[in-house]
Amino acid sequence: MHLQEELKSRLGHAGFRPGQRELIESVLAGRDALGVMPTGGGKSLCYQLPALLKPGVAVVISPLIALMKDQVDALRAKGIGAEFYNSSLTEEDRRRVWQTLQAAAAGNSPLISKDGASQGSADTKPLKLLYIAPERMQAEGFMNLLTRIPVSLLAIDEAHCISQWGHDFRPDYRKLGALRSLLKPAGERVPVIALTATATQEVQGDIVERLKMDDAARIITGFRRPNLSFEVRKATGREDKFRYLRELIGQALEVGDGEKSGSAVVYCSTRKNVERVAEELKKAFRKARVGFYHAGLSDEDRAEVQDDFLSDRSKIMVATNAFGMGIDKPTVRLVSHFDIPGSVEAYYQEAGRAGRDGKPGRCVLLFNHSDVATQEFFIDQLESSNGDDSESESAADATALRVRTQRTMLKQLVRYAYATECRQRMLLDYFGDIEAKEVESCGACDRCVRAEGGATSEEADPALALASRQALSAVARLNSRFGRSRISEVLKGSKSAALIEAGLNQQKTYGLLSAWPMERVRKLLDALTEAGLLRVAGIDYPLLEITPEGVRAMKGEEPVRLGLGFGRVPAKGSYSSSSSSASRPSASSDPESSPAGASVGEEPMSVDSGLLLKLKTFRRDEAQRKKVPAYVIFPDKTLMALAESCPSDLDAMAIIPGIGPKKLATYGEALLELLGSR
User: Fold this and answer.
1) Is the whole model's pTM more than 0.85, yes or no?
2) Which end of the chain has the lower number of beta carbons within 10 A, N or C?
3) Which tens digit of pLDDT belongs to each residue from 18-60?
4) In terms of C-beta density within 10 A (0-12 exposed, 13-18 middle, 19 or more buried), how is residue 147 classed?
5) CA-CA distances (angstroms) from residue 69 to 59, 136, 173, 239, 434?
């Protein structure tokens, strides 16, 4: 048997993707197999091709009702007999499928047409694949029928749902371990193939144990999606998030080939937030249809909304996690989380819906620590169910374990949001991917872009460097006992009763940034955290502590290097009168001596719109040439600074935030030529 030829003739694919051939060969040999492959890696083919090559009917267990119909329609279009049996079927279709399965159980060869018509119609094919939801095993009549059908293989899609250590545990999946023993094998035995895109090593072990997969082949092709860029944007509140969304979605809709622009998916944790965000985006994007999806909609409405999005009639989808599992829309350029999800696994799976065509995709988490309370509420709801006296002791123990597991997973995601390392590497390391050791920097996530393009405050803004050292000193003196809000109050010189009662007005750093707006003080602390000079020490209540790098920066032993996004670092000679060279404190001044001016980085920009358009065109062309998102080349703030300051040489360009040594060497001369031709 030549698998390559079978793949081409039966399914129309020219070649195998990594891991597919190994999984297929294992199943064809009658061996159990576990496949962990990234979203878009072609998991469904790993059971579809063996199903066509083995006698009998392949049973596919999937929680994705919408995906069942899509896959069955696609298989029928290729002349392959496939059916699905779930709650979405009409009564007429339910009777038709039931008759088909009865024929298979009786030893007849049921025939399925391309449109699912009854046997005897023209262009019919034998039934080879049957898709069912795990809940179907609770129906005694259906199980009696299923166990009489000769089965070629048992495929478990989204296999992580079987593990209580996973992010999407479903109790019905736990019954799958006993299912194989009930099935009638078409050959010597019924091999099991379990597939997932998100499973830690612990979850992988649980899958193999629960499904009783003896001597299973484990094919782990890796978790890395090199075409995706990951980013966390700290938001002060809802309006901040809406502002970010308008910017991000606007950029996503501009990306595309020819007339087919990109699409965007926005995830929210509650139905209420879904509808609020959708209404806001409808106002902002009147020409791009916005859909929303959650479990509170009727089956008909959900199907219509999903079809509109998949067929490109709508470009923006706002949804809870009820949407998207298994959805294969190649042109999604942005997946943004308006609210924090419950785990790294859930986040990575949902973010993975971007860039399924292999082209650049952007994954942005809009993070405010107060959002964690929503996920904690969900966990508390689960925990409160543990007090039901009707639960058995074993069920109560299982619920308690699930609660502990969910709290741990939530803390891991919060750590991801606050992390200062490469996000791609952190995700790979979380899943135990050996490739994590080889990834020093992905070059595309917000951390790596910031590390390459950060501005050194001593060179660009001595007053900002002094303010940064004063903030670092405040955190160090408070000895990890307070969070951002309280430390901001100390620096601002707040007269709040709680602060004075605690004696914090006696701190040497009290009031050093009294001339700054409170929100800017908070953003300075955020910028120092993002730069790795501070870190969040608590999860339930985020406490700030100074890092070893922060200690050295505070003492002046190392320069203060802030990431992009903290206001604008003015070009040389452009300080406002309140921070003139005569009054500006030196970067080497005592960080606890004098208050820093309020005007640092605050003055508005005035730029030549024509020149800015030229710079954006240059960025777009470079992004298309390198097949990366435009912001990876230069963020908007860098283009604005270039258009305003118009540096005439490389030295002047080097102090602009966002232009590090590598980008200066790569783009410096071309930018000087462009700026000189204005």
Assistant:
1) no
2) N
3) 899 999 999 999 999 999 988 777 889 999 999 999 999 999 9
4) middle
5) 15, 16, 20, 39, 36
